[in-house]
Amino acid sequence: MNPIIEVNGISKRYRLGMLGAGSLRDEIGNWWSRRKANGVSSGVPDNAPRDFWALRDVSFSVQPGEVIGIVGANGAGKSTLLKVLTRITDPTEGRALIHGRVASLLEVGTGFHPELSGRENIFLNGAILGMRRHEIRSKLDEIIDFSEVEQFLDTPVKHYSSGMYVRLAFAVAAHLEPEILIIDEVLAVGDAAFQKKCLSRMGDVAKGGRTVLFVSHNTSAIVNLCTRCIMIEKGRLTGNGEPSDIINTYLSRDLTDQPVKEFVAGGGDAFFSRVALVRNDRTPAASFDFDEPVMLLMDFTLRRAIPGMDVSFSITDTTGERLFRSTSVMSEPPIIVENGGNYSLVARIPRSILLPGRYFVTVTLHRPNFEIYDRHERAITFEITNKGFEYYSYSPREIGRFYADVRWATNNEPEAGK
Description:
Layout: E1 5-16, H1 24-37, E2 50-62, E3 67-71, H2 78-85, E4 93-98, E5 102-105, H3 118-128, H4 133-147, H5 162-175, E6 180-183, H6 192-207, E7 211-215, H7 219-225, E8 228-233, E9 236-241, H8 243-254, E10 260-262, E11 270-278, E12 287-289, E13 294-302, E14 310-317, E15 322-327, E16 341-349, E17 357-366, E18 372-385
Parallel strand pairs: 3-7, 3-8, 5-6, 6-7, 12-18
Antiparallel strand pairs: 1-2, 1-4, 8-9, 10-11, 11-13, 13-16, 14-15, 14-17, 17-18
Helix pairs in contact: 3-4, 3-5, 4-5, 5-6
């Protein structure tokens, strides 16, 4: 079977500080940045353009019907690769061959004309894909129903919120039956219920034999949806294989070695200056054994007295699901944080609670009514290892994120489990 996508030695170079480097949108941005920097000290002077290779010698092929997940850190080159595949930008070296009709959703508003209504944009996108009017009409009701924007369908899309944009754009891309569907992390704009519906629809598209390229930080979705996964690091393809194997490699490489996060001082009345993960002896750590506690240190500054100031942190897993949130005001005795000055708090997550895996910490400074002063999503990352886990369970694997010390007994032993 011949590949439906062939990527042969693709490289993409941008000339920072120089026009002629990319798409029209990139060019306008570069021109405006240079104009603003005129007469002002700039990190990229006009007479000294610098080369930046967003992609370097990337090669792979995709067979018809494959569902390919693409993972990598922010700035690794994932979105640039998709822009090359969708002909938004040309590669500096190499070539990409696409054999089939492509529908893509790379960023909010891609492919939509802002002055046209939602309904008109559906027909416009269908025409771009090469569909006849009667083909588009046959899918119109499904698209409208899926997008949940029927009330605004005849309103120009320039008045849509980002969430409405994404709903309609995804509905169009997924229902107009392209041979190839390319989706970037743009789905993160939608709410949780809509994201779930989109993932379900992508599963239906894949089962229908169409080819899907899916960039996402939702590693669970990639493992469940994709037949293969590729990993990009600093513009180079460094992994290509089974989704579970690639995801495990990706997560282990992405785990920070220094579990201390320094924050730039904010302009508000309250802000975090430092967050760190440490062991009981206060030594920094990013990896903890199952049977040891995780200590979270939080340094922050109040520029004035703020009565009722609370400090919260939450733990999320790799799928983005929040496992729990803890707030300083709930402690006994309560921690009083009211006067201006510098503060340092420590929160202790008990041992043998979180199952082995990777987790993220979000920290927030807020009032009781959740008036937020400073917040850092995924401020720091840590890992719970298997070491010590064998002493707590005979089972080699538990399902879920929390360890439950469940006691089993026959029905004639009523005292068991107490």
